[in-house]
């Protein structure tokens, strides 16, 4: 089978140890550390998103949020805590979510007499709260008060924030107890409105992932088994990582009237009759940063898609002796100002470090374009420019004005190239198979990647055993096959 | 004494009941409700910030955040939960904060057998967590790992999010268990760096409040008693509300080496010696929305300062009969597009409601400029324009092009007028008094507002009794008097 981006056996030193081929999970952690994106915190299961990682998330928010607003969504902020009784309202939802939550039981600490603090026994809450694992129930409760008439519909709400689901085995960005996301919650008059919303938002996600994060994937609908707890229908965008596993990058849920019934979201319809609203919810989270790493990264570290990169261009002054310092720095400053005025995100690395260390730092952080400026460049009004995705093979010297003029194309080329590689990865890692026997032999022979099989196999009693043996789940029924196939894969 | 903006006794109907004069606290709640800014939630003490209120907060973030970035601050995200042992590290801090917190003691719920859910006894945490009341301790812990050398300083971090301090008596925006804010946490080589940071950020707050929120106040330093728990010095911006009470709109804290010592934030200085860093923290929160209401609002509701208003211009189509509908709406659409293209925030209210209700809605929401467009306006290429702060007295008809051209000036005039009124309010509500006897007689005679007295009175043993009797606190020692005076006031 095809194994994209396979390491050549005699590859020289890489910036990241271990390499992807040697230990994909270890490589993933090392990329995050060397790019300074995030780290584990002293709060078990929770991460600290460091400035460079948070700048990436902010860029994602800044790009996506205006699209939601144009579509009619209004941002809002609901309480962090949810009364436990709210969770219990929707039967399937509680089954799926109530289990692993951070439970708030007290509202005061007191001295334990040994220099420490303990929850005060006099301050136990009558009803405990959970830190929100998701906000359907508390937003549903508000919707039941805010919606009276069909004139109040559609009601399209969204909030950016964090949620918490207690996790025992955590991995930065991919699975942490607290993670960051946006969560949309909308109410419509009927199923047509809710379905249209789910598909519209799913298209918006696809556009965002392809046009900004430069990754491809399968858009489709989840099987009944894999639906969000309490949803009638769940749609998803599933991407394929360089190790062949799938990652659910975003989901949209048609909740039917399930939450409307449990929360009491009723409205007077156009005929004056009291009717249950149809609700939806949808989200993507900081998991997409994990996807970015595992789709685009290489053995030298992170590769940032240029349209979302916190820094698009890193300028590295290369001083051989002190006499050059001020002219080189002036040149860098002037170039920085020029690029900034054209809307590029650019930095000069003027830290007190060796320039080779600065270059490797830019490489490991995945900064799309690196510029080196030494005495020769200043003298000739040139810059030496390297594309992160192509490495030193792409090194070339350009006149400053030429660089400034072509930078938009350079960034677009990087974007296009990353997206093509992601599409190639998806194709190479998808086997179209017909029978359960085929699936079995593929994975038995240590095949990597996912398999697309006829949807009828979902009814086959032999499927469960195969899923269990090879840790497969049904990811999605891709739209491209009009519901005739289902994608099975190991997944993050 | 002067009482600014006093209601005239025979004022006709107001949009808000009760009026400010009749019941300021009731008026405050009614303004929030009628402007649809926020509401109480089913989670005791926590609020729901509704779309219009959140849009205001987002505008505040969008304005202020780039200033922090220009100054060198990097945004980041630290865990929501803080181990209880962390809080206990800094003695004064625990004294000030540990008491009323949301305490997480379990990580799982289980069925109680009666259809409800309870914390699982098998899932009790070995060490409880609190939902962060503020993040000095957990950020200090990270700083102790991130900072090694003077080269790592200054380290300037900030996060936007929510925090939680359990409150028994809550009021929307002013005092809720969960509230939204930004919190900056920085480390410097020495006290000079930390002090400069506190003053720089305080100036930034002042600029933001004056130039965007259009309110004035006293910048100064807190008395020892009123410092943040664990700070060597606390600086604040205190504003005066229309009822004469003070509200602390923002604070900056010089934490000295207190947190550095308790968290172990040490660095190798320029002489190679291990040294404790000097840290600072600073914040403003959604309380400033409460201040906006109580400084600018009137008996018809909210008045939004134009540079921060979610909607600067509301266009109201006035249709007398159905034949006019489409030409009027076309006219409104075209005007909306024209204003949007110039960067104004503008909406057409095309809801299915009476136009008089739309006008009152725009009034109660405090939209700075209201435009009415009827058949006559369309015919003559004109708009009828009303300033919210001046009311119907300011109604005038302008040619469309004239309105579009002068809108920046109109908005600036509204801003300047609001700011002047706030300065007048501050002046009118500040009594310069010399002795404790003066203070006593002023409040005994039901004087409203705050008093500025010589700082030496802080040493007077009689002060405590007066503070208690009249619910006064020492707000700030204003910079304008170079530490010679202290401002005493009732405060929110």
Q: What features would you describe in this structure?
A:
The structure is a homodimer of 492-residue chains. Chain A has two domains: 24-296, Bira Bifunctional Protein, Domain 2 (BirA Bifunctional Protein, domain 2, 2-Layer Sandwich), CATH 3.30.930; 313-419, Anticodon-binding domain (Rossmann fold, 3-Layer(aba) Sandwich). Chain A has 14 helices and 25 strands. Chain A has 492 residues and is α+β, with helices and mostly antiparallel strands. Chain A has an eleven-stranded mixed beta sheet, with helices on both faces. The model of chain A is unreliable at 1-6 (pLDDT under 50). Chain A starts with 23 loop residues before the first helix and ends with a strand. Chain A has helices at 24-35, 51-71, 84-87, 91-97, 136-146, 191-211, 258-263, 287-296, 325-341, 355-364, 375-380, 400-428, 436-444, 463-469, and strands at 38-40, 47-49, 74-75, 81-83, 103-106, 109-111, 117-119, 124-131, 155-164, 178-188, 218-221, 233-240, 246-254, 266-268, 274-276, 278-285, 313-317, 346-348, 369-373, 382-387, 396-399, 430-432, 450-454, 473-478, 485-489. The interface between A and B is large, with 64 and 64 residues.
């Amino acid at each position: 089978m095809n194994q994209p981006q396979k390491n050549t056996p005699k590859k020289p030193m890489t910036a990241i140890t271990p390499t992807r081929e040697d230990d994909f999970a270890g490589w993933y952690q090392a990329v995050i550390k060397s790019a300074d994106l995030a780290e584990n915190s002293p709060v078990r299961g929770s991460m600290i998103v460091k400035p460079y990682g948070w700048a990436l998330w902010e860029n994602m928010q800044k790009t996506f949020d205006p699209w939601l607003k144009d579509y009619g969504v209004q941002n809002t902020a609901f309480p962090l805590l949810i009364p436990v009784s709210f969770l219990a309202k929707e039967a399937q939802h509680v089954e799926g979510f109530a289990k692993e939550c951070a439970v708030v039981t007290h509202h005061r600490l007191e001295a334990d007499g040994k220099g420490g603090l303990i929850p005060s026994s006099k301050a136990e809450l009558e009803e405990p709260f959970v830190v929100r694992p998701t906000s359907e129930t508390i937003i549903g409760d508000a919707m039941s008060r805010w919606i009276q008439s069909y004139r109040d519909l559609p009601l399209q709400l969204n909030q950016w924030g964090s949620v918490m689901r207690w996790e025992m085995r955590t991995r930065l960005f991919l699975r942490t107890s607290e993670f960051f996301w946006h969560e949309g919650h909308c109410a419509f008059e009927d199923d047509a409105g809710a379905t249209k919303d789910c598909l519209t938002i799913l298209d918006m996600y696809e556009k965002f992932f392809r046009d900004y994060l430069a990754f491809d994937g399968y858009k489709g609908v989840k099987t009944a088994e894999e639906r969000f707890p309490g949803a009638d229908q769940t749609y998803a965008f599933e991407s394929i990582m360089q190790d062949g596993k799938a990652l659910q990058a975003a989901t949209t849920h048609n909740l039917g009237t399930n939450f409307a019934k449990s929360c009491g979201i009723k409205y007077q319809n156009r005929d004056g009759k009291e009717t249950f609203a149809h609700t939806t919810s949808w989200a993507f989270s900081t998991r997409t940063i994990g996807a970015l790493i595992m789709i685009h990264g290489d053995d030298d570290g992170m590769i940032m898609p240029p349209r979302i990169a916190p820094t698009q261009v890193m300028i590295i002054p290369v001083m051989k002796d002190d006499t050059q310092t001020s002219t080189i720095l002036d040149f860098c400053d002037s170039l920085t100002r020029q690029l900034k005025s054209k809307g590029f995100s650019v930095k000069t690395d003027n830290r007190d470090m060796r320039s080779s260390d600065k270059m490797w730092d830019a490489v490991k952080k995945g900064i799309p374009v690196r510029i080196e400026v030494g005495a020769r460049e200043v003298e000739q009004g040139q810059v030496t420019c390297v594309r992160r995705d192509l490495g030193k093979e792409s090194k070339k010297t350009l006149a400053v004005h030429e660089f400034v003029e072509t930078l938009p194309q350079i960034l677009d080329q990087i974007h296009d190239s990353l997206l093509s590689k992601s599409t190639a990865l998806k194709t190479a890692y998808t086997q179209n198979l017909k029978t359960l026997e085929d699936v079995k032999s593929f994975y038995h022979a240590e095949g990597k990647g996912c398999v697309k099989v006829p949807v009828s196999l979902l009814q086959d009693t032999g499927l469960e055993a195969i899923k269990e043996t090879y840790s497969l789940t049904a990811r999605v029924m891709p739209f491209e096959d009009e519901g005739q196939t289902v994608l099975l894969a190991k997944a993050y």
